[in-house]
Amino acid sequence: MRPLRAIGRGTIAIFAVIGRISVFAGTSLYHCVRPPFFPRLILRQMIEIGFYSLPVVGLTAIFTGMVLALQSFSGFGFAGEATIANVVVWGITRELGPVLAGLMVAGRIGAAMAAEIGTMRVTEQIDALTTLSTNPFKYLVAPRLIAAVAMLPLLVLVADVIGVLGGFIVSVYDFGFNPTTYLKSTWASLDAAGFVSGLVKAAVFGFLVALMGTYHGYHSKGGAQGVGQATTNAVVSASILLLLFNFIITALFFAT
Amino acid sequence: MTHSDNPAKIEVRNLQKSFGAKHVLRGVDLTIKTGESLAVIGGSGTGKSVLIKNIIGLMEPDSGAIQIDGEDVIGMNPEDRERVTRKFGMLFQGAALFDSLSVWENVAFGLIQSQGMNRHAAREDALAAMVQVGLDTDIAERSPAELSGGMQKRAGLARAIATKPEILFFDEPTTGLDPIMGSVIDDLIVKSVRELGATALSITHDMASARRIADNIAMIYEGRIVWHGPVADIDHSGNEMLDQFIHGRSDGPIQLRVAG
Question: Which residues contact B68 (CB under 8 A, 6 or more apart)?
């Protein structure tokens, strides 16, 4: 009976975690749409998530675009501007732009959120918010969720442009493609569904990253070690959920 | 000062709280009259912090009743609970100042968020509260991390009194401070409570502090109140547990479990 008991216990634990995260997400969403709002905090988070993530997302995108062009060229042989441009645009806008931007933001922002809120938890700053009649969900969680959902699509938009630029640089300066023809092929390859699906993914990834960062930070305990654990959990869980939801959204958009 | 004729501000009845198999509060009964300053004393792990967190609403008890101004607060809807919480001010053990805000923004936090005061007016009130606790207004723009432990406690006290609360809670107010600074903080607590006419509940294991800030003392041991009376009576209470605790003796009815 021991293995059965262990399986049962593990299953209950998994459902308990899913339940806790769902309640946390529901409570957070409730406070996202119910006043009072904290525009100053939302703006600060937008700058932190959007503006300060630009360098890391931009660098990731440009190198990915360049590699995509190189790999396509070596894989397809000289297939002309249209094929390379098509692969770069589709690869970047549909998949690599949102997924890589999401993973980068999970590492940068998800970790920072978990560490900041976790430190506030273990130093009783969250308790202090409550005694000052301020709901921690409204003050700490909602602004981060709103900012992440708003900023990730913008970051992905920038990543799309820079990624395509990376492909353009390699194609024009390394392969010697005609820049005008390449840009025309790029424009022609851009499809609305792929582009929109990338932005939808970005918004969902933003929500997941902020949710995991705030959830693990909010429930951290045990001092510095607990905060470190919360930070790790936030990044790992956000990354896994992000890849899972990437599959689900892709299936919803493109599965026939 | 006697408050025995005043109505009860905080009333705790048969409060129980467990964490798994650990039964922390085992039926706490406590009444704090309006204007009274009560210190709950007891060793580490006896349930002091859990008791205060249950009263404030940071934890939900398993059973029992808590009344603030005659209102049952357990199971209250969030709006009513927030209304009751506006009566509170609290000084945390580590001050719990918000790292991301300057000192004056910390002190003004309750005024802006809870009372809806505009930032300019709140800043003026925050500076006045800082002066009240002996903080130089030159440090208003500094970050809490730049302050010493004693200054952080003062800033925490200024934040607690800035909203002019009816009830003040003090969690180990002198822990981590040198004896002189501890005495200064105690004097500020007494002064603040008197000026506000507030009811105060402190938890501490510092007997010198308890004697200075409290009118009455309640001793908690193994999740129950084992003695409750005026501070003047603690030296001849006839209670062996209280005697052992206030004299810091290792032998007596209180047995510390030391993991070996």
Answer: B9, B10, B55, B84, B87, B167
